[in-house]
Amino acid sequence: MEPLYSIITIFLAISCFQIPKVQAFQAPFHPKDILPLLPDQVSWPIMNYLNSAVDILPSFVGAASSTDTTLQWKGACFYNNTAWMVFHNKSQTEFGGGTLHLKVTNAHSWTCMDLYVFATPFRVTWDYYFLSREHTLEFDEWESKAEYDYVKRKGVAIFLMEAGMLGTLSAFWKVFPLFTNTAWGESSNIAFLEKNMGAKFEQRPQPWVTNISSEDIHSGDFLALSKIRGRWGAFESLEKWVSGSYAGHSAVCLRDSEGKLWVAESGHENEEGEDVIAILSWEEWWDFELTKDDSNPHIALLPLHPDLRAKFNVTAAWEYARSLEGKPYGYHNLIFAWIDTIEQNYPSPLDANLVASVMTVWNQLQPEYAANMWSEALNKRLGTEVLLILLVDISWNSGNK
Ligand SMILES: *[C@@H]1O[C@H](CO)[C@@H](O)[C@H](O)[C@H]1NC(C)=O
Ligand SMILES: *[C@@H]1O[C@H](CO)[C@@H](O)[C@H](O)[C@H]1NC(C)=O
Ligand SMILES: *[C@@H]1O[C@H](CO)[C@@H](O)[C@H](O)[C@H]1NC(C)=O
Ligand SMILES: *[C@@H]1O[C@H](CO)[C@@H](O)[C@H](O)[C@H]1NC(C)=O
């Protein structure tokens, strides 16, 4: 942050001298323009005073996926903006990379700037512009075929943020990468847990999979999982942090009357892509965890103590599991743990505004997931059907009173 502040300060110092000369052509300097230069403690109260909750959220202006320049919008500072995408292969890699071009013109004052967030489901980056000209943003190499296909099809999403949001952006930067399904996302999760929970991650020697025999597993044995990559990884990181637990997910083993072993767990994706409570055969579950789970799970088997196993009522456990099978995952139960007071719901560095910003961006990229997380949680809370915008408002208000 430091170099940016000083560059802007110098720029501001220079342009202040010029203001009298150019006043006839452009609007004079506006107090909001200098907000990014002030420390968060100072700029936040001013920002809250000047803006409504809606202004403070990143606003989606469009997505650039081709050289077509029809994507135009009006920014907060520059009134005429155009963006287009040029794919290239400078990196000589399988999927190549791309250059996002942004042409920003018609600034409303000499001191204003526009702040942008650029996102794909695999990365997020940001930049700020205060010079009226063409700017470029380089993507040297697409992370994977999935990112390449996404950008070809949907483009890089562009969000405009209020200039006073620099503080939030730097915090946003810490949280958003957690959600990306990349090695970067994974190391971000680990760093996040180390920093905020003091958790230590030490790589085990090989083999990474115990040669476990399903014969040794009994009804009532517990599986504690910790996922550290992708959507589940990020969600679990935040969950571990707010709950103080080192497991983000759990499942229970059950044997049926023929002695066949099953695993009952929530958060299993069914054929329609919904996360539901499911009962899977041990073989299917274990095979998924070993070969298909891209969240890089750490799994611990915690056998039930023999005394407790003797008391464990398998019939009742099966009845309970069957009664829940196929039901929605229950994001509401999880998020309940976070949104449980009128104010100060989020531990630092998360604040309601930041959560709202992340969710706004996330909602644009992967609407089905974001909608699940938030609407399930708050519909349950309020006993009603609410729209995303309303809940963003609620959480924003509650965090900033
Ligand atoms: C906005 O910019 C584009 C591209 O630079 C230009 O073609 C267009 O005429 C401009 N529109 C206005 C209203 O200035
Ligand atoms: C980029 O160049 C490399 C090496 O020449 C080639 O293997 C790859 O297929 C190219 N990728 C694209 C997307 O054109
Ligand atoms: C795992 O256990 C089975 C049966 O006990 C044995 O045949 C196999 O060699 C073991 N595999 C490893 C990698 O130890
Ligand atoms: C086990 O649970 C079943 C079903 O709820 C119940 O009928 C039975 O009495 C329970 N057995 C014991 C020993 O508590």
From TrEMBL:
Signal peptide positions (record): 1-24
Keyword annotations of the record: Signal
Domain of life of the source: Eukaryota
This protein's name: Uncharacterized protein
Protein's organism: Lithospermum erythrorhizon (Purple gromwell)
Taxonomic lineage: Eukaryota, Viridiplantae, Streptophyta, Embryophyta, Tracheophyta
